[in-house]
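Researcher: Go.
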Amino acid sequence: MASAKSATSIHDVAAFHALSEPGRRLLAARVRYLDCGKGAPVLSKGQRVSGAFVVMSGQLRVFTLTSEGQEATLYTIHPHETCVLALNCIFNDLRYPAWVEAGPPTRLAMIPGAAFRSLFDAEPAIRNMTVQAFSMLVFRLMTELEVVHAYRLDRRLANFLLLHASTDGVVRMTQQEIASHLGTTREVVARVLGQLAAAGRIRTGRRQIAITDPVRLARDVKAVTADA
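Model: Structure:
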């Protein structure tokens, strides 16, 4: 795929050329720009996503971790492209399920979630951009998810909680439902949840689990540990 030229304004990006005049005014009023240095973290696993971002120049790397704790790139985001996982979060009230960092120095256009959803509802060009982004990456993501599920149980459970928490940091599932997803028993899930609660990562309640320390929980997933 040929590289797109760097853009100085979101209106220079082809996907936004066909916006209606109200759409252009909304975008101009709400968009903001962010400059990231080489290797700078942009999003972390378990973080709330405030909106959609479009790469203006540079490149972003979206990555997860293998069962051995090694970084594995899911995909890179090139100029004039947006992040599929961030779009999924703002449309489905989820936290970000991976890590993102800048490759070279990178400039981003950030569109708040409410504004992007309004543009999606009103503007065919934004709907087309979103569908194309999902279509391009879905098979690659499915392959990587198989690797993620190879974590040992304590890391798989921490990963599961981060993936399924709503924006208020709560997973509204029973221990049995979680056990069914992970292919284990409720008793084993209860034991590991107890360990996470004792470590201050979560707080358990009736039919729900609140993530109290998403940064440390994500660090647990990322940490290299020996198999039990």
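Model: The chain has two domains: 10-147, 153-222.
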